[in-house]
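In response to a reviewer's request, we include the raw inputs and outputs for one of the modeled complexes. The two entities were modeled together in a single run.
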Amino acid sequence: MTASREEALARDAADPLRSLRDEFELPEGVIYLDGNSLGALPRRTAARVATTIEGEWGRGLIRSWNTACWIDLAQAIGDCIGTLVGAAPGEISVGDSTSVNLFKALSAASGLQKSDAPSRTTLLSERSNFPTDLYIAESVAAAAGLKLRLVDAGDLADHLNHDVAVLMLTHVNYRSGRMHDLADLTRIAHAAGALTVWDLAHSAGAVPVDLLGAEADFAVGCGYKYLNGGPGAPAFVWAHPRHTARMDREGLRQPLSGWLGHAAPFDFVPVYRPASGIGRFVCGTPPIVAMKALQCGLEVFAAANALGGMTALRAKSLALTDLFIARVESICAGQGLELTTPRDPALRGSQASFAHADGYAIMQALIERGVIGDFRAGHAETGEQNLMRFGFTPLYTRYIDAWDAADILAEVLGSGAWREPRFHRRAAVT
Amino acid sequence: MTASREEALARDAADPLRSLRDEFELPEGVIYLDGNSLGALPRRTAARVATTIEGEWGRGLIRSWNTACWIDLAQAIGDCIGTLVGAAPGEISVGDSTSVNLFKALSAASGLQKSDAPSRTTLLSERSNFPTDLYIAESVAAAAGLKLRLVDAGDLADHLNHDVAVLMLTHVNYRSGRMHDLADLTRIAHAAGALTVWDLAHSAGAVPVDLLGAEADFAVGCGYKYLNGGPGAPAFVWAHPRHTARMDREGLRQPLSGWLGHAAPFDFVPVYRPASGIGRFVCGTPPIVAMKALQCGLEVFAAANALGGMTALRAKSLALTDLFIARVESICAGQGLELTTPRDPALRGSQASFAHADGYAIMQALIERGVIGDFRAGHAETGEQNLMRFGFTPLYTRYIDAWDAADILAEVLGSGAWREPRFHRRAAVT
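The model returned the following C-alpha cells for the whole complex.
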C-alpha cells in the first residue's frame, strides 16, 4: 500500500524499469493513461520513419524491396511479437488490421472444424467482446453456416459443449479489463472438441501470454495499443504450427488469398498455391512505413528484456493498477464510482475501469486537466454501464502518475467541475 | 517524332507540366521508370509524416482522432482520388490493401447477383490479369458458388453471356500495358446482365477514368503506384451509388464487417449494422501515418489540375511512351526486343513493355546504369513472354529521360554487357 505522494516518488526512484520511460516522447503536463487505446510515441520512431521515407523510398525507390530488406520486414516484426506472446520464430504474420486478421483466423478455424466436425453449429463468444470481433464473427459465422452465440464471461465454460465449433474470445476485455485464463479456457474448449481464436489486442505487450504453452489454436493482436506502433499500426495473426502443418498437407487456405501469401509470389502464376506455414495468412503488399514504426515499438520491448521482460512489466502493471484503485477508492468514496476491473490480479489486465453514469463528462474534465483516459458508453439492454477506462503501460507510466491521476479525479468529482455543459458535448471519437 | 537529344530537351523546356517534377525527390543519376510499381517520393511527404508522428501522435496522442481530424482522413483522401477516377465525393473508401478491397468489392458484386440472378455461375476475368486479382477471385468464387473462367483479353466480349454473374478486370494490364475500354466493356457486360469490378491499379493517376460516366459497378485501386503514396500505401474501393443505395435499403453487407464500417462505431453495440453508402466498405482502424503519406501524393495531382489535370497528364504520358517506343525500335533493331504494349494510343496505358528472353539480366544491367524499370517473368504454359516494363509517370518523367533510357538500353544490348553472370542472379523481389 502506497501511503503518500513521497512514497509514490520513492517507488519510481527504486523502479528497475524506470529507464524505459526515456524511450518515449511524452508531452509535458500530461498523465497518459490511454496506452490501451493508442500507445505513446517511442523516441526512436520519428528518425526511423524519416530514414525509411527519405533514404529507402526516396533514394532507394523500388530497389529497397531487396536492398533495405522490405520483403523480410513483416516476418522480422512477427518474430519480435512472438517473444511477447509465446510464439516461435516464423509463426506470426504482421500486416492488415486486427479485424482483417480476425477474419482470416476465424475463417481458418471454422474451415478446419467444418471438415473435422461438421455437426458443430456454434461459434461461441462473450457478449461484451469488442464489437469488431462480434461483427467479424457474425460475418464468418454466416459464411460458414455457424450460429454466433454470445454469453456472459462467467458462463463460457458451461456453454462449451459438443455443439461448439469455435470459441472466440478477447483475452482481456476492452471495457472491464477482466482477463480470461487463456490456458484454462483453451483446455476446456479442446476437451469439448472446440478450437480457440484469441484476440490479444489488450494483452500483447501488457500481460504475459504463452500461446504455445497453452496449445492455443489461433490468435490475433493489435499493433497500436501496448506495442506502441502508432495510430492504425499493422496487426498480427498467429496459428499453431499443428494447424499450419495440416493446412500445408491438405492445401487449405484462408479466404484472403492475396498474392504475397502465395508460395512463389514473384513467379506471377495465375493459380493460387498457398505459402507454407503462417505465410498463407499474408495477403497484399505490406505497409512498409507503418511497419517500420511498429518495429520501433517492439525494439523498446527488446530493451525491456534486459530488465526482466514481461514478468517485470506485469509486476509493475499490477502494482500501478493496485495503487490507482486503492487511492481512487480511498479519496473518491461516495462519488458514485464503481470499480468494474477485477481486484484479483489473476483476473486483471493492465487497466482500471470505473463505472459512473456521467463518465463521459468526467473524463472530458480530466482530459482538460491533463489526465488522459477514455470513455466507453454502456447499454441499458445489455446491462453495461458507462465506463471510464484508465490504461497503465508499465513501459512509461510511473507510480506518481497513478497517484496524481487519482488526486485529479478526486478534485474533478469533489468540485463538480465536470457538470459544466461543455464537458457533455460528444466528440466524433470517444 | 523526336529526332535528336536536343529536341527532347526542347520538349521538356516547352512542357507545361515541367514544374511538377519539382514536387518530387528524385535521386541524381537515376532515370526512374518504375512508378507503375512504386511511385516516387513527393517532396512534401517527409515533413507531413514527421508532423503526424511528432505532433499529432507524440503530443496529441489519442486526442488527435478528434483534434487532428484523423477520423475524417480516409474520407478526405477518398474524395481526392474520386476526382482522378470519375467518382463523386463520399463514394470512395480508403484503407486496407488492394487485395482486401477487391475481396470486399467482388463479394458485394457476387452477393447482389446471387440475389438477382442466382442461375448465373461464372466469374469472368482475363487470363493474364494480375495474380492477386485471380487469387482473390478464386476465393470469392468458391465462397459464392461461382466458377472462375479466365479467357484472353480479345475473347472477353464473346464470353459475356447469360451465365456471367461478374466481370472482373484490371483496366490496364500489369504486363503488357494494354488498356481495356472500360465504358465499352461495362456496357457489354450490363447488356449481358453481368456486373463489373474494375481494378484501377495501373490507371488511377495514370490515365483518365470516368467510373460514373461509364456506369461501372465496383472498382478498387492502389495507392503506391501512380498515386505516389509510398511502399504498401493504403488502397481504395468504390461502389456505384445505385449499389450502395440498394445495400442501404436491403441491409446488405460485404464480409469484412469491421467496427469502423458500422453505422455508429462509437456506440459499441454488439450487433453489426452497416454504415450507409461506401461506409460499409470500411473495416478496421485506418492506418493514419500511411494515409498522411498518401494524402501528399494526391496533393501533387491537385497542383496538376491547375495545369490541365488528367487530360494534360494523359497527353504527356502518350508522348513519352511514343518517344520511347520509337527510339528503342530505331536503335535496338535486331536485338531481339518485341514490343508487347499496343501502339494504338486508345489501347495503351502509361507504360511500354518489351519482351526479351533475357529480360531479367538486361534489366539488372540497366538498373546498374541508373535506368530503373522492372521485369516480369513469362510462362511457357500460358504463352506469356519474359517482359521488361518501363513505366512513364508524366508528373515527373521527362522527354530526355525517355530518350536517354532508350540510348542506355541500346548500349546494354549492343555491348552484351547483360551477359555477365552477376546480372543473372535472381533477387528476392523481381
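As requested, we also summarize the result in words. DSSP finds 13 helices and 15 strands in chain A. The radius of gyration of chain A is 22 Å.
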